[in-house]
Design goal:
With 262 residues, chain A is α+β, with helices and mostly antiparallel strands. Chain A is 33% helix and 26% strand. In chain A, the strands form 2 sheets. In chain A, strands 1, 2, 3, 4, 5 and 6 form a 6-stranded mixed β-sheet that branches.
Chain lengths: 262, 262
């Protein structure tokens, strides 16, 4: 929403255009130079932070809604957004009045208030999507209701609104779990990379150091990357082999039932 | 729903008790003696089949709703139901009148009809849950609106209502994908099993034969099962080693970030 009038229109007529009881929240992980962060935003009127998120239009496919919401609120487009979980347990913790109060503090900037029986005051379940980007490549354009955006270290997430803490934790578990199933790092590394480069990426995402030789063995056994005959010349005594992702091999194995049973 | 009156109450007052626009659908995979099936049901008035499913109560945690719905419609309780995906793309394909007609054919048995502006005629997204059971151990008690239940071979799924075909396909992909990440077979095999037994289970679920020696090597490398010092005496020349699942090892690896990076 770009103006005060957008917010007023949303509060007055949103029920005609959006599905009630269901939102989308996006966990955007940002990686750069051995650091893993998450994109958070802080609405005007709140000290607590939130995930980027919004509502699904009445006739809009869910996956399109996720992309539209992220692009509208942050101007980030063309991400590989992956749905990972729908959250409907924590949403029973807030009652109608608490939910109303949170929204009214957000909307105060536009001088509009919602009532206790407004659809936004009701219980809302959330479909979680995540993505992984190089955070230096991302430019964010502020939304009217947002006071600030920040890339927060995943180890130091501040206090969050709603059940967003739980959503980030589950997203991080999913990211880590899928690291060996999908070429998740493919957009964060150069097309041809060295073993130390992918090792550093995996250590950062998994949040712990691990043995490089064992890592290489397992990565190659899975067929997710392949060693190239080329080497990179770093110095007289340092010319590590280059590797590349093998998404075709991965997708074939997945279609056949397992990355491991081939 | 057990009686005609239950259906009439649901149609008249359901909007007071249930969230609109969101249902739960359950894909119950049944395995026995090298056969993999899915539990389907056929409502009165329909030739097409459906998944067991229902709606979430207004203040009910989502995960509790999934168990309640399955127990209510089939009497199957205490399953390890796993949420796997929320479906919100296919639901844009049916319009309001088509949705109304499907429900009216189901409800005709109770002599009640819904209008075009009834909440059940509106677009409904679906949260998918799956489970894997030994289908011989399951007893199903028919719901008032259901004409018949069947365990259908996953390779021969009949024509289905709504987007249930898509839901089953995604559930099967997820089951296959998680076969090496979770001790999925633990409830389907005896506590101590032979390699041919777990090999047959995995071949059936993955829907294809694969090399037994390679399978054993990968399964042990993942730490999902461990070989026991005991052997089973089958005959003079046949005493295969016994294996058991090692869920503790799996869960520790998962918490540390990956089953493979340990």
């Amino acid at each position: 929403m770009n103006t005060s009038q957008d917010v007023v229109d949303f509060v007055r007529n949103g029920h005609l255009h959006y599905l009630p009881h269901l939102s989308i929240d996006c966990v955007i992980f940002g990686y750069h130079a051995n650091q893993l962060k998450t994109l958070l935003l802080r609405y005007h009127g709140h000290e607590q932070w939130s995930l980027p998120g919004g509502f699904v239009r009445r006739h809009e496919p869910l996956s399109e809604a996720a992309h539209r919401i992220l692009a509208t609120q942050t101007q980030i487009a063309d991400l590989f957004l992956q749905q990972f979980h729908t959250f409907g347990d924590g949403s029973t913790r807030l009652n109608r009045i608490e939910t109303q109060q949170i929204h009214n503090r957000i909307f105060a900037k536009a001088g509009v208030a919602i009532a206790e029986d407004h659809w936004l005051s009701e219980r809302t379940l959330s479909v979680g999507y995540y993505a992984l980007v190089d955070y230096l490549s991302v430019t964010i354009t502020p939304d009217f209701l947002v006071e600030e955006y920040a890339w927060c270290d995943v180890d130091a997430i501040p206090s969050l609104l709603f059940d967003h803490q739980e959503i980030i934790e589950k997203a991080l578990l999913t990211l880590r779990d899928q690291l060996y199933q999908q070429p998740i790092g493919a957009r964060l590394l150069p097309a041809k990379f060295t073993l130390p480069e992918i090792h550093a990426l995996y250590e950062t995402i998994l949040g712990k150091p691990f043995d490089r030789r064992n890592f290489r063995k397992k990565l190659l056994a899975l067929g997710l990357v392949r060693q190239l005959p080329e080497q990179r010349r770093i110095g007289a005594h340092r010319s590590p082999y280059l590797y590349e992702f093998d998404p075709e091999n991965y997708h074939r194995a997945l279609e056949e039932g397992s990355v491991l049973a081939g």
